[in-house]
């Protein structure tokens, strides 16, 4: 169908590396395509949005930079289970027939007269749409291009499996991708060295494969579980305890922690005491329990102190904890090591490996750069979006992101985003946040159709008030104490500010619905009047 024009042997660092020239010129690949809604990205959010809008009669397509459904997930290591899930979704819902893959959006401009967006892609196509729904950080180390081995960034992972058997492997970064790779490569590689700046305060996944019979019995409860998710703070089927940490005795606290730890998942993050992310002393108590449990799994004293220090590196949970099943156990292998780059940073790369600031040299065959990416805002600033006054979103947001309701941006009429900046996003179960916002977007489009509304544009003052609201809620938590992805701190030089709505999914749902009912925060252009 398409020919990728860039080499997969180098480390891809830009979405344009995935652009392709398409032989097919029909359907979602047609030039001068006209649709009701164009959706950027075929991940959870994009697929939910496509299905919802199609079901309501809107002609909609997805432009996806990758070569398959799954969005960001499709290029991450160890994604096999998610791949099977997205394939099943396509089999049931027929998603791919309305998707253009290896299609990278590089520009979008709104025409106030026609009330339509014109979207440009890297391969030269243009598409017109009434509605636009939008859904990586590469360190500047000297010598990256000189390294003679295999090197990839975790968010641009190749389709082909990387052979690490008997290889000397480096994993730079201990975020979600770093944790996954340690678990996958630890048992296989000749040697793994993990370069860590900050310990990952990961919690047990407790994964268990359900039998078909168990799944069939559970299906009767699905409607209630789906409803229950949207009543909890973080969009799960469990929630905070309705009491504070020190309302309990030390014995009761330990029993509570043990129960959440044993049950696994994100329970130890958002299903213990309700003051855990708001009160410093309460948080210290939860960290002490985490450290006790985790340190017991690491044999080597030096590695133990780096991976699970007695003194917490930051408040527990203010950086999203990853789920792990044997991450910490891998470091008890003599072939898995950890290097602290907080005090002795990476200076650069040479042909054979990595050099630290003190001159220490590490030789490698394979390097995985798991340093994350420009999360939340980056997915929008890379699209080449241009406002109705001619400014670029990427320039506007240098001094800080501005949205209204975490779904719209002033100056960009009829553009909606979900699972992005100023929504629940990273503080929430992804699919739960996507469904709440996706239904809101579809309902807003329906409301515009019924009311003969050509376009809606958030008022600048409404956006400013929403930003103040986001900051006010966030300041009541412990999140501002740490430079994290929640605070836009994943990329050096980026403004540190709250990225997410920290009031919980139920409160967010109420607020955006009230705003839709009143429409006071929008400038409205009518089809006729």
From TrEMBL:
Q: Which residues cross the membrane?
A: none
Is Methyltransferase one of the keywords UniProt gives this record? no
Q: Which domain of life is it from?
A: Eukaryota
Q: Which UniProt keywords apply?
A: FAD, Flavoprotein, Monooxygenase, NADP, Oxidoreductase
InterPro entries assigned:
FAD-binding_Monooxygenases, FAD/NAD-bd_sf
Question: Which Pfam family, giving just one, matches this sequence?
Answer: NAD_binding_8
GO MF annotation, one: monooxygenase activity
Q: Which cofactor does it need?
A: FAD
Task: Family membership, please give it.
Answer: Belongs to the FAD-binding monooxygenase family.
User: Which PANTHER family does the entry mention?
Assistant: L-ORNITHINE N(5)-MONOOXYGENASE-RELATED
Protein name as annotated: Cyclopentanone 1,2-monooxygenase
Tell me the organism.
Answer: Plectosphaerella cucumerina
């Amino acid at each position: 169908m398409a020919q990728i024009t860039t080499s997969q042997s180098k480390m891809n660092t830009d979405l344009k590396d995935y652009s392709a020239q398409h032989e097919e010129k029909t359907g979602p690949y047609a030039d001068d395509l006209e649709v009701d809604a164009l959706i950027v990205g075929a991940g959870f959010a994009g697929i939910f949005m496509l299905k919802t809008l199609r079901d309501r009669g809107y002609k909609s397509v997805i432009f996806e930079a990758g070569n398959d459904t799954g969005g960001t997930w499709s290029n991450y290591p160890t994604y096999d289970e998610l791949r099977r899930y997205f394939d099943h979704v396509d089999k049931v819902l027929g998603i791919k027939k309305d998707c253009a893959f290896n299609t990278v959006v590089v520009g979008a401009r709104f025409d106030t007269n026609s009330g339509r967006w014109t979207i440009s892609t890297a391969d030269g196509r243009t598409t017109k749409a009434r509605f636009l729904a939008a859904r990586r950080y590469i360190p500047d180390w000297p010598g990256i291009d000189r390294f003679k081995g295999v090197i990839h960034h975790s968010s641009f992972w190749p389709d082909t499996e990387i052979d690490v058997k008997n290889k000397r492997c480096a994993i730079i970064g201990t975020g979600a991708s770093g944790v996954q790779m340690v678990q996958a490569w630890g048992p296989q590689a000749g040697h793994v060295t993990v370069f860590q700046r900050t310990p990952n305060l990961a919690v047990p996944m407790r994964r268990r494969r359900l039998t078909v019979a168990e799944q069939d019995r559970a299906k009767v409860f699905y409607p209630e579980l789906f409803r229950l998710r949207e009543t909890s703070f973080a969009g799960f089927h469990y929630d905070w305890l309705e009491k504070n940490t020190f309302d309990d005795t030390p014995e009761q606290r330990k029993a509570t922690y043990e129960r959440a730890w044993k049950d696994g998942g994100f329970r130890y993050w958002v299903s213990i005491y309700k003051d855990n992310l708001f009160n410093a002393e309460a948080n210290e108590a939860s960290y002490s329990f985490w450290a006790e449990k985790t340190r017991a799994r690491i044999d080597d004293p030096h590695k133990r102190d780096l991976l699970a220090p007695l003194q917490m590196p930051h408040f527990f949970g203010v950086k999203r904890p990853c789920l792990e099943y044997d991450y910490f156990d891998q470091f008890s292998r003599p072939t898995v090591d950890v290097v602290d780059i907080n005090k002795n940073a990476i200076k650069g790369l040479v042909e054979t490996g990595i050099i630290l600031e003190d001159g220490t040299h590490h030789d490698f065959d394979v390097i995985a750069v798991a340093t994350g990416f420009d999360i939340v805002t980056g997915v929008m600033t890379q699209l080449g979006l241009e406002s109705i006054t001619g400014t670029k979103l990427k320039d506007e947001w240098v001094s800080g992101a501005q949205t209204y309701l975490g779904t719209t941006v002033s100056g960009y009429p009829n553009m909606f985003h979900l699972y992005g900046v100023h929504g629940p996003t990273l503080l929430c179960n992804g699919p739960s946040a996507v469904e709440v916002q996706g239904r809101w977007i579809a309902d807003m489009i329906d409301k515009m159709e019924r009311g003969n509304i050509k376009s809606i544009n958030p008022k600048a003052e409404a956006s400013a008030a929403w930003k103040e609201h986001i900051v006010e809620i966030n300041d009541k938590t412990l999140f501002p104490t740490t430079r994290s992805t929640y605070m836009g701190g994943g990329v050096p030089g980026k403004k540190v500010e709250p990225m997410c709505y920290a009031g919980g999914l139920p409160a967010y749902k109420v607020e955006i619905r009230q705003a839709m009912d009143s429409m006071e925060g929008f400038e409205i252009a009518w089809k006729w009047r």
